[in-house]
Amino acid sequence: MEKQTLVKEICPTTTQEWVKRGALLVDVREKDEVEQLAYDVANVINIPLSVFEERFNEIPKDKEVVIVCRSGGRSLRAAGFLVNHGYTNVVNMEHGMIRWATKGFPTKGDTSSVLGNTQSSGCCDTTSESSSSCCTPTAEKEKVNTTNSTESCCSKSGCC
Question: Among residues 11, 69, 124, 134, which one is catalytic?
Fold first, then answer.
């Protein structure tokens, strides 16, 4: 049986906290996707998944790294790859740009490609009156990067 590697996942709200602490966002979407809509944070680089194996060495091993994409699937694969290559400070951002933009976090470009017909998810949407968030470090969890689980932080904590 092949050894399975665990990848820690965090939601966009926690990612915001990590970015404020200086974490590097690595966007694994293709160049045309990033040109249409980008994460608007100070410390972000784009290494498309299609060239990730050739370019992953551009990612420092001594920094906290959050891997991101459109919905969280490609970034989970890339995060697993990094963990398997000795990176210890790497996490995947669940739900990707879709949730990031839905929550109103900073972007550059046209959000209609990800916000089209999205509905509010409830307690963690940007119009929630509660100042607390289910997306706190205590809501962080680990997933096996070799599974296609549909479980989300919503199933663990009731929101997000």
Answer: 69
